[in-house]
């Protein structure tokens, strides 16, 4: 017989279990709805608070119309809006983060004056945990970087006035004139590769002679120098081409050394003026890690003595979710731009030209060389840059050995373009004169301008041996000019002073 009490007890247990499951299901749904509601409220506040100017205990953001005192943001490590959005999405999986949420932070149009009345920065945080400062200052255009940064993307007059003189057209003309009247007395090993030679002239002056079996590299060195001249980049030592001819006055006295060097006659060489007191030049920290940028916020942080000194991160760290980093104590703004900071900014201004120049010619043998080898040696970015030196007395950066430019480098774009593009994409501050000359070069036609300078400066013998810049190279150069000007326009939209 069935026990009625057992049946009733079992029915009661089933009923209790069913009730318990319903309660647990309801609790889960309520919890999920609470989480979604909290996150939606956070999104709404993130977009709404910066607009209406609600202030809190930690972050103070007021409308920019307040002309008396304005709270501004300095980004310690700038990142593009789309990167911020993607990283926020990684932090909260399966949630779509609208562009407007990041855009409403409006960090790119922020202005921050720099003067003696500034108070201590207050630490804050952005949507991707990037450390920022909120600084209370008097209102002033373009972050108060007058004379240091102009229009948000150009180096200002203070920096331009302190740039080393370098080498101008007058120096190049004087060098060509000197070569035409002098003669070589000896060739000595040196100046880089095995068949290069240190040339000594009759009055003791010296030059580096670049000799190659492949005339493409001689063309690359010569036409890259011409391009630097057209852009008024004064970091390239005066150079000129010559043809090895033991019957000519220039080479007659060095016939035996030419034979010892295994140089062939009737071959072109490039003679570059010897620059003394050169020392290795390192890669500045804004261009070392893969996720760094160089823009007006970075410049402002340098003037404040605030620089991101976090250790370099590997590629997997960059692609992974962001991690909270310890915040350094706020540093009060200085009352003046001291010599050390000024020297650093002057060096970075020269690097602006270097990045643009190397991108245009697709130079493989300088910073790209370090970037390419970074995948095997993470410490290589801390090593001196290849084919770059600094003059110890003037602090002039000298762009050496550009033979891969415009021809050889263009043939290898498929392999190295990612590294060229990485450097250019990190740059958002330029020398105004360089960009103006680049725009003029585009309007006139780079191939025409380069051919004109080649015909006007090279001897008949050189022009008989060296052909002009190939048409294919001229087309690639036009594309790369457009790419640089496009980067300038993008930076203008992101960082220029808003009216």
Automatic annotation (TrEMBL):
Keywords: Kinase, Membrane, Serine/threonine-protein kinase, Transferase, Transmembrane, Transmembrane helix. It comes from the Eukaryota. GO terms for molecular function: protein serine/threonine kinase activity. GO terms for biological process: cell-cell signaling. The chain crosses the membrane at residues 30-53. One of its GO terms (cellular component) is extracellular space. InterPro entries: FJX1/FJ. This is Putative extracellular serine/threonine protein kinase four-jointed. It comes from Lutzomyia longipalpis.
